[in-house]
Write a structure and sequence with these properties.
The chain has 928 residues and is α/β, with parallel strands linked by helices. 35% of the residues lie in helices and 13% in strands. Helix 9 packs across helix 17, helix 18 packs antiparallel against helix 19 and helix 26 crosses helix 27. It starts with a helix and ends with a helix.
Length: 928
């Protein structure tokens, strides 16, 4: 038997296969070779020879029959353990004894081993095809538009099934592997029975009926390790999670029992409130025989929102390979050392939109991570499939990206292992996604306390009468004389004894947390005394000038759009004069200065290179050739790189992808920019003790654009925070920072602060889209020079502070409209404006300092342009009152000025918007 390494080399390179560059479509594409852009690879399989083409034409009926079996054989395959799938079978030929030359029609030899005639009878052909395509594994690959992939599959499947001693080892399940499969199945059943006995009222979401999931993953991990993969990023929902954790992933059963009994899964002194049992995680290092290195498997946290973790896993997988992106394209082979594996439920795979969004990212040049293996544990929900999806298979959604699909019967764990081996071979060769649909059943319904027989009586009558998957496999191994009854009893008894021992240690168990290791070892716990919350973020002026000039440098002969000449000229003038720095310039200087300090920056969203509001222009496109440059990368030659990841029209998956990247790399400034208004989603960020420095850029500000193009729903973001309510209470370990900057300088400091802090927390920026180019909102170089930093509160520079009778607190662009209106009314000495630039954590101390500058104020107002039930009012009101009480001005009422309550973020009628906005401005100065 050949070694696993030799087999892998044969499959990967020994078939005479040559690799050719991908040819991108010509529709709507840049000639983008900017940092991070990776064109999908394509591989060319040896085409038909002229002799084979002639034979295919001469035997067209046979060719149609063979292709029909390849295409439709899955409909007759034995893949359903409960035999509930309707099968159909069609025959096109009837003379079993007739001989056919199958050269070029049916693959009987390895690729490159000759082009000779091979004569088979119709009976032999039919039996061979049925053996390949109508068994316990069903294949769907003929829908692929790639002839290369179709040929690859048909060659592999049809030649591998031949009973040649030379060919059998590749996908063979030897005796040692059978014993390993049995151990996993038996231990899973013992584990579920043990929990049922000890904790009968526990919802454990066990694996009973789906035990083959464990040998499926074990086989995949082994194949990956032998092929050189060092790290697997694993995403999965709750079904079978505890079985996987305590077995393959080496999670302590004592720790799990401690959690079941009501204990903390993390050290109590950290102050975190924990999560439910079925969301536990592990990151073990595994060893597989034959591999020359260990395999790290990282199971990611996942909420009960089923597939929400999928894009997070993709982002983390790509981020683990970020250093590869700094090498030349020839050296960068994404997926060589890191692989993403995703487990799904069949109902959620069909029903959750984030699945389709994530699949849509898989081959995009700035999002690909080298191919994902998807394992759908088709365990059925309590709703029948007829009410759960409109397709035959739950996996059909994968056909949107032409993904091959393998369906396999979970009652046959050896075939499950083979299916996973084939899936890995495909993924590792083509570096694309593939789906394995594991058809199993759930013995107890949605959970162990469920009574699914009430609504599915016939199905559960069948299930109750069945032997379990481990028992069926044990019968098979006894018949094959691989195991004896004593062997079987020994495996089960020893594992039950182990679980009993672990349960006995629970009273002395003390949880621990392994955080901030490896690349995170320079990061501190945010609540520790070592945390630096407000670092100086200013930069020496020569560096700012260097970066600013580099950001608009254009190579000789590179023709930019005519309107960008003015953009570049204005930027250079503002840098030279030190005044008129707009938001785009401040952003470029923040990015470039961080890059010079060795940090990377990645910003994603729709057309972020240009910017949603055509303001950024960090990516320039040659108007003649459509070639792309990123001036900050090309001119600065910094260690850090800027990746402008123009994304698909997706919110949840793209944000999840960036969130995953931020989990992996603390020195990466990860930004997701929403296109408009409330085009956003959020992620829960505190319960897993995961630090993330992601930035959500959410355009915000009423300007007459209508409901979905005005509001970033600040009120919803603020509701997610754990911000304290009282100025006299101790500051909390805030989970999300939320800011609404009104000047480019403030924006500059916020971006740099994300990296210069020695801890990481998400930052939500309500983007001031209405003032991106406003001269009134511009900043000076002095405001971002060395020694400067972000200011949570900005006081009014125009007002005589002792004369002010009315103090208006607010956030956002409406400030500039108010300043203009105040000047028109000649009230500069009577009304003062205080901008609350950071809403979470609420700046109690800084606001008090600002308010104390107006000792004669008689009125206090919170003003906003959003409706009263939206915006920051609900969050800010009680906190401002707390500050006033602390200042002994609690007798002063906090008045509200703004729009009235509304079900819409903004009106969609222009005249109505104008009249409402005018009313807000009038109310601000009423009575003066």
């Amino acid at each position: 038997m050949r070694s696993s390494h030799a087999l892998r080399r044969q499959v990967m390179s020994g078939w005479g296969i040559r690799r050719v560059p991908a040819v991108l479509g010509t529709c709507r594409t840049y000639h983008d070779e900017s940092f991070g852009f990776r064109k999908p690879r394509e591989y060319q399989f040896p085409d038909y020879t002229q002799t084979q083409l002639v034979n295919r034409a001469e035997n067209a009926p046979l060719l149609r029959y063979v292709d029909s079996m390849r295409t439709h054989g899955h409909r007759a395959a034995r893949i359903d353990p409960l035999d509930l799938i309707h099968r159909e079978e069609r025959y096109g030929l009837d003379d079993d004894s007739k001989m056919y030359n199958v050269n070029g029609i049916l693959w009987t030899k390895r690729v490159g081993t000759g082009d000779e005639e091979a004569w088979w009878s119709l009976k032999q052909i039919r039996e061979h095809l049925r053996k390949v395509y109508v068994g316990n594994i069903a294949y769907e690959y003929m829908h692929s538009p790639s002839k290369t992939e179709r040929l690859w599959f048909s060659h592999l499947l049809e030649s591998q099934s031949l009973p040649s001693p030379e060919d059998t080892p590749l996908l063979q399940v030897d005796e040692e592997k059978k014993r390993r499969i049995h151990e996993l199945l038996a231990r899973s059943e013992v584990f579920d029975n043990f929990l049922q006995q000890k904790f009968p009222n526990l919802k454990r979401y066990g694996l009973e009926g789906g035990e083959s999931m464990l040998p499926a993953l074990d086989s995949l991990f082994s194949a990956a390790s032998l092929a050189g993969v060092h790290h697997i990023v694993l995403a999965m929902p709750h079904r079978g999670r505890l079985n996987l954790l305590t077995d393959i992933l080496k999670y302590s059963p004592a720790a799990m029992f401690h959690k079941i009994k009501g204990g903390f899964e993390i050290p109590e002194e950290l102050g975190a409130e924990g999560d439910v049992l079925s969301h536990l995680v592990a990151s073990p290092t595994l060893s597989y025989e034959g591999a020359d290195h260990p395999l790290k498997v990282s199971l990611l946290p996942n909420p009960s929102h089923l597939e929400a973790v999928n894009p997070v896993a993709l982002g983390k997988t790509r981020a683990k390979q970020y250093s590869l992106l700094k090498t030349s394209p020839d050296d960068c082979k994404l997926g060589d050392r890191v692989m993403c594996v995703q487990l799904h439920g069949d109902a959620s795979f069909t029903g959750q939109g984030v699945v389709m969004e994530s699949l849509g990212l898989s081959n995009l040049p700035h999002f690909t991570s080298g191919g994902t293996v998807h394992l759908v544990v088709d365990i059925g929900y309590t709703t029948p499939a007829s009410g759960a999806r409109s397709s035959l298979y739950c996996s059909d959604v994968g056909k949107m990206i032409n993904t091959p699909i393998l369906h396999v019967n979970g009652d046959h764990p050896e075939d499950v292992a083979r299916a996973m081996d084939i899936a890995f071979l495909y993924r590792n060769y083509f570096r694309k996604d593939i789906i394995v649909d594991l058809l199993v059943y759930r013995r107890w319904g949605h959970n162990e306390l469920d009574l699914p027989g009430i609504t599915s009586p016939l199905m559960y009558e069948q299930i109750a009468a069945r032997k379990s998957v481990p028992e069926l496999y044990e019968q098979k191994l006894i018949a094959e004389e691989v195991l004896s009854q004593e062997d079987i009893s020994s495996v089960r008894t020893s594992y039950k004894s182990y679980l009993e021992e672990e349960l006995a240690t629970v009273p002395s168990y003390v949880p621990s947390a392994s955080m901030l290791t490896d690349q995170w070892n320079s990061i501190v716990w945010p609540a520790s005394v070592d945390a630096v919350h407000d670092p100086v973020t200013g930069v020496d002026r020569p560096v700012l000038e260097k970066v600013g000039r580099a950001s608009v440098a254009v190579p000789e002969g590179f023709e930019i759009h005519l309107k960008l000449h003015r953009h570049a000229k204005n930027r250079l003038q503002s840098i030279e004069s030190g005044r008129g720095i707009d938001f785009a310039t401040a952003e470029a200087m923040a990015f470039g200065s961080l890059m010079l300090e060795g940090n990377d920056v990645r910003i994603s969203g729709q057309d972020v290179g240009r910017g949603t509001f055509s303001h950024r222009h960090a990516m320039l496109v040659n108007q003649k050739t459509e070639g792309v440059i990123v001036p900050l990368n090309d001119e600065l030659k910094a260690d850090g790189k800027l990746e402008l990841a123009n994304s698909s029209l997706s919110e949840m998956a793209v944000l999840g992808f960036e969130y995953g990247g931020s989990w992996e790399r603390p020195n990466l400034l990860t930004i997701w920019e929403a296109q408009f208004g409330d085009f956003f989603n959020s992620a829960q960020v505190t319960k897993w003790l995961k630090q993330s420095g992601i930035v959500l850029m959410l355009p915000h500000g009423l300007d007459g654009a209508g409901p979905e193009h005005s509001s970033s729903r600040i009120e919803r973001m603020l509701q997610l925070t754990n911000d304290r309510y009282d100025a006299t209470s101790q500051p909390t370990n805030i989970n999300i920072y939320i800011a609404f900057p009104t000047t480019p300088a403030q924006y500059f400091h916020l971006l740099r602060r994300q990296i210069l802090r020695n801890y990481r927390k998400p930052l939500v920026i309500a983007g001031p889209k209405g003032i991106l180019r406003s001269s009134a909102a511009a900043s000076t170089m002095a405001e971002i020079d060395s020694g400067t930093q972000f200011q949570p509160v900005l006081t009014d520079p125009l007002t005589s502070k002792t004369k002010a009778k009315r103090v208006i607190m607010l956030s956002g662009k409406v400030y500039y409209e108010l300043v203009k209106e105040r000047q028109t009314r000649g009230l500069d000495g009577s009304v003062a404006f205080i901008r609350v630039e950071e809403l979470s954590p609420f700046p109690f101390e800084k606001l008090q300092e600002a308010l104390e500058q107006y000792p004669n104020a008689a009125e206090y107002i919170w003003l906003q342009e959003e409706p009263k039930n939206q915006g920051a009012f609900i969050h800010a009101a009680s906190r401002i009152k707390s500050v006033l009480a602390k200042m002994r001005r609690g007798d002063k009422e906090l008045a509200y000025v703004g729009r009235k309550e509304s079900p819409l973020p903004a009106p969609g009628v222009g005249k109505l918007y104008q009249s409402q906005q005018r009313a807000v401005l009038e109310a601000a100065f009423a009575g003066l």
